């Protein structure tokens, strides 16, 4: 029997799982998402390698908040609200850099990299214990956690620990973090772009194994044509719910992976390099885990909006809605800190072939998402109000089914429908 | 000795071919070892694509494949085609050596599709080569003077 709960209609016997298209269009939903998702969940703020040296900082916009993520002069990682305690100007006005102090240019207050007030012009005109009261210090976000280099914040002081929140998804972030004994680093160059579509469309798209054959026909033509390039390996694998809305698809694919899946076009030098990296993985993790890291692709979703795609290259991506039909996306390339110049070059080359605003695939994803948003203009009409997310129901999950999307939607619906009907 | 007028003729021809979507003819303007690059907006203009993440860093082979892709109806983001207009100005010859000429110009590219008009603005850095078949483009780097690709969202056209 079909039951409707919030924005989801479900009937296991009929293999039916539908999501109301108003979830993508309504202002009330957009507001409810901030209240029940972005202000309650752990959100990715950056990778520790982005602030590697003491004093390094980057500015970040997370869930609309204006933040500074830094490593202070004692080596501690912090995330501050980028706002002067005095009258509210931004204390950090550069996108990134290294600083022992932040100065508010409006009235000249100066803060240490740990956020403490260091200097206040006209101090004698304030009460004597102004500094001691802490009223003049920068304020950190309520919660911060570093899980193996992936740094998260939470605006809810009562939230559970990051370990508990990530739960079964930790195994998959570990498969990324374990790719190098020297640690992983974010490569310079951010891909910041927007999509004129609802943010949840990118959640679905980022771990959708079903759309490649048509949406990415031209990319697959290109792979096939350069097929000296590819391995004769089929797209094959599974999708998995990880709990708390997290999900993953894990699969083999014909493309090369700079973490040790060689393809002929990389030549003999590449082969030696891949064998060297693979041998290192085997030595550290044993053959089974090494093969899994090297030869399997993983599209990981950490609820609500962190995507780690460990595919022909390794990308970290997060995104926020500005309106129901507009999102801002930020993407990075992640790489082993100690990989060779050769491997880094091929990694980035692989990245650009598929991923990002100029790749042979991502612009067509953007088009597809915007096209869905266009279709949702009919969301309130009879008979066209629902998305069908039922692929693979009642069957053993495959990488190109939709179990991972149902995982997201169930958690999203649990949270959002509690505050919005 | 190549003059600025000759360089401008080449750049304006290139802009016209792109706006007319005559991409195979456009590719003929490039040498067999050509490179075409668009660094990410937060990188310095002289960044190295082997070390930093770009939007586009094509060698001749991938550039050719980019054109193949752009000419397909399954290239969804540019089919139906967007309307574009490439404006090229402030052309300067920066120097010449070994038969190659360094040129800088300013650009504004307008792309219109589905009711949105997005503007890409920045500078072109060219390396041009004198060949028996005339002046050809050995390298083009389009450096965006933008904070990000918001709202443009993509670089699916050729800049």
Automatic annotation (TrEMBL), chain B:
InterPro entries the UniProt entry points to: NTF2-like_dom_sf, Rng_hydr_dOase-bsu
Taxonomy, superkingdom: Bacteria
Keywords tagged on the record: Dioxygenase, Oxidoreductase
One GO process term, biological-process aspect: 3-phenylpropionate catabolic process
Keyword Oxidoreductase applies: yes
GO molecular function, one term: dioxygenase activity
UniProt xrefs under Pfam families: Ring_hydroxyl_B (PF00866)
Gene3D superfamilies reported in the protein's UniProt record: 3.10.450.50
Family assignment from sequence similarity: Belongs to the bacterial ring-hydroxylating dioxygenase beta subunit family.
Name recorded for this polypeptide: p-cumate dioxygenase small subunit (CmtAc)
Source organism phylogeny: Bacteria, Pseudomonadati, Pseudomonadota, Betaproteobacteria, Rhodocyclales
């Amino acid at each position: 029997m079909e039951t409707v709960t919030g924005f989801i209609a479900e009937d296991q016997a009929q293999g039916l799982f539908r999501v109301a298209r108003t979830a993508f269009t309504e202002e009330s939903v957009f507001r409810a998402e901030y209240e029940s998702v972005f202000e309650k969940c752990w959100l990715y703020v950056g990778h520790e390698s982005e602030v590697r040296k003491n004093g390094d900082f980057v500015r970040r916009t997370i869930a609309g908040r204006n933040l500074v993520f830094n490593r202070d002069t004692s080596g501690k990682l912090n995330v501050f609200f980028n706002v002067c305690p005095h009258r509210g100007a931004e204390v950090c006005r550069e996108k990134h850099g290294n600083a022992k102090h932040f100065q508010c240019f409006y009235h000249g207050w100066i803060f240490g990299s740990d956020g403490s007030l260091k200097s206040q012009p006209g101090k004698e005109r304030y009460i004597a214990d102004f500094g001691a009261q802490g009223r003049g210090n920068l304020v950190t976000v309520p919660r911060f956690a570093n899980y193996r280099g992936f740094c998260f914040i939470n605006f809810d002081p009562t939230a559970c620990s990051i370990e508990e929140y990530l739960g079964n998804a930790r195994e998959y972030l570990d498969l990324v973090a374990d790719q190098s004994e020297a640690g992983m680093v974010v490569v310079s160059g951010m891909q910041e772009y927007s999509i004129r579509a609802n943010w949840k469309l990118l959640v679905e798209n980022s771990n959708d194994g079903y759309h490649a054959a048509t949406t990415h026909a031209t990319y697959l033509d290109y792979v096939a044509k350069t097929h000296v390039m590819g391995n004769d390996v089929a797209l094959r694998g599974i999708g998995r719910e990880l709990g708390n809305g997290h999900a993953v698809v894990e699969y083999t694919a014909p493309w090369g992976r700079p973490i040790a899946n060689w393809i002929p076009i990389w030549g003999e030098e590449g082969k030696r390099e891949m064998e060297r990296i693979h041998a290192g993985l085997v030595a550290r993790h044993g053959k089974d885990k090494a093969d899994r890291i090297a030869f399997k692709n993983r599209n990981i979703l950490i609820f609500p909006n962190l995507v780690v795609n460990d595919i022909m290259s390794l990308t970290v991506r997060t995104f926020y809605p500005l309106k129901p039909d507009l999102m801002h996306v930020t993407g990075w390339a992640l790489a082993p800190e100690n990989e060779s110049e050769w491997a880094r070059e091929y990694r980035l080359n692989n990245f650009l072939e598929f991923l990002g605003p100029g790749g042979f695939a991502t612009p067509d994803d953007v088009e597809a998402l915007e096209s869905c948003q266009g279709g949702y203009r009919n969301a309130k009409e009879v008979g066209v109000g629902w998305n069908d997310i039922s692929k693979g129901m009642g069957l053993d999950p495959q990488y190109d089914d939709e179990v991972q999307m149902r995982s997201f939607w169930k958690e999203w619906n649990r949270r959002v429908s509690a505050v919005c009907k | 000795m190549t003059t600025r007028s000759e360089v401008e003729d080449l750049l304006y021809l290139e802009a016209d071919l792109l706006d007319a979507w005559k991409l195979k003819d456009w590719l003929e303007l490039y040498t067999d070892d050509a490179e075409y690059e668009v660094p990410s907006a937060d990188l310095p203009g002289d960044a190295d694509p082997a070390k930093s993440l770009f939007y586009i860093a094509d060698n001749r082979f991938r550039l050719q494949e980019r054109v193949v892709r752009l000419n397909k109806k399954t290239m969804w983001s540019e089919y139906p085609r967007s309307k574009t207009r490439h404006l090229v100005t402030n052309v300067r010859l920066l120097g010449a050596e070994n038969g190659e000429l360094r040129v800088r110009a300013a650009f504004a590219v307008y792309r219109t599709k589905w009711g949105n008009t997005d503007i890409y603005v920045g500078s072109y850095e060219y390396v041009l080569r004198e060949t028996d078949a005339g002046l050809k483009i050995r390298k083009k780097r389009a450096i965006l003077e933008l904070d990000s690709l918001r709202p443009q969202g993509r670089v699916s056209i050729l800049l």
